[in-house]
Write a structure and sequence with these properties.
alpha/beta; nine-stranded parallel beta sheet; 9 strands; 15 helices; TIM Barrel
């Protein structure tokens, strides 16, 4: 009896080993992630690593995203020498200082008064012609002056604070300028009534028309940004950092509150950089939320992550602490979920507060090196 039992156990051990080896092989193949084109960091040049005489290629990093205001010819040249692509972040609707000299650009709330900044986040009325020209001029200047590989729109949404577990989403903008433009462009006639009554009408009976018109205003900004790229640096990519919600989260707030119509923006955008900050957005123990949101975005925009697709998804994932802590043990899991198809690139948020946490930086580098082709 002993020998048959031993043979059976031996056979099972061989089978188990074979299955385990097969799983390890599959996992190793998956970890290479050949579909991932971009392994980036967001938040500036990683001088702390370069000062250690390390090179970006050996660290697995091939892209750096930095604010357009911190671009210099020297920094770009340094990164290009390292073989890295350089992408600029561009603030569209959040230059609060503009209101000091142009108070008429303040978003107006449902009561007809200036809407306070939700959680300190100050937006701007999207129909203010002077502000729009100001941002377009700056956008054009950045593209003309700096040899960047792409430029990413940031804060391109209405006056709201959504980067938190419980978002603060006031309804705006009901200024006279917006109300007139809405009527002119939609052919909807509004009665001669106080703003409080008009806002009730626009958020009630006329809500569908109002929401779509607001989305169209923000989309038209994206159209003009694309036109400027075509004129000044046509090889540059146009990307957008945007809210990671699905179209049903928070009662459809992506369009209803933030005025983000991703499908309408798609003809002008090359890369969608969804912002699934799992710890910040109340999913601290669930890094898989990252890949679920990315999968939704791919389905929503019909992006599969296949070679030759025009549109790409490059998530920006949270490794630095912001609100909730991201433990070092989560780094690989966060990057694993951030690099799953349909994503074809990833970047980490954010270098300025991440680099002192050297254990997490080491874990990030280890992962990037592992998936590098």
């Amino acid at each position: 009896m002993a020998r048959p039992l031993l043979r059976t156990l031996f056979s099972l051990a061989i089978s188990f080993t074979s299955v385990l080896f097969s799983m390890m092989t599959v996992n190793a193949e998956e970890q290479k992630r050949p579909h991932i084109q971009i392994r980036g960091i967001y938040g500036g040049v990683p001088d702390q690593l370069l000062d250690q005489k390390k090179t970006l290629p050996e660290l697995g990093i091939n892209a750096v995203f930095t604010g357009s205001g911190s671009l210099t010819q020297e920094r770009i040249a340094l990164l290009k020498q390292q073989g890295a692509k350089v992408f600029a972040e561009f603030n569209t609707m959040h230059v609060a200082n503009y209101l000091k000299d142009h108070p008429d650009a303040s978003p107006i709330g449902v009561d007809g008064k200036v809407c306070p900044a939700p959680q300190g986040w100050q937006g701007i009325c999207p129909t203010h012609p002077g502000y729009r020209q100001y941002r377009m001029d700056e956008f054009r200047r950045v593209l003309k002056e700096f040899e960047i590989d792409g430029i990413w729109l940031d804060y391109h949404h209405s006056h709201a604070s959504w980067e938190r577990a419980v978002p603060d989403l006031p309804d705006t903008c009901f200024c006279e300028r917006c109300l007139k433009q809405f009527q002119r462009e939609t052919k909807v006639s509004l009665p001669d009534a106080p703003t409080s009554e008009l806002s009730t009408l626009l958020l009630g009976k006329q809500k569908a028309a109002w929401v779509q018109w607001r989305c169209d205003v923000f989309t038209d900004w994206v159209r003009e940004f694309r036109a400027i790229i075509k004129e000044t640096r046509p090889q540059a990519l146009l990307g957008t950092f945007h809210c990671p919600w699905s179209d049903t989260d928070f009662n459809g707030a992506l369009k209803n509150k933030l005025a983000i119509d991703l499908k309408a923006q798609a003809p002008y955008v090359d890369v969608f950089s969804i912002m699934p900050y799992h710890a910040r957005f109340n999913h601290p123990e669930d890094p898989a939320w990252i890949s679920r949101q990315t999968a939704w975005l791919g389905k929503h925009l019909s992006i599969k992550g296949e070679p030759g697709e025009r549109h790409k998804i490059w998530p920006i994932v949270q490794l630095s602490d912001w609100g909730e802590t991201v433990p070092v043990e989560q780094v690989h899991s966060v990057l694993d979920h951030g690099t799953r198809l349909p994503a074809t690139g990833v970047m980490v948020f954010r270098w300025g507060s991440l680099h002192p946490q050297t254990d997490k930086v080491d874990a990030m580098i280890e992962y990037y090196q592992a998936i590098k082709p």
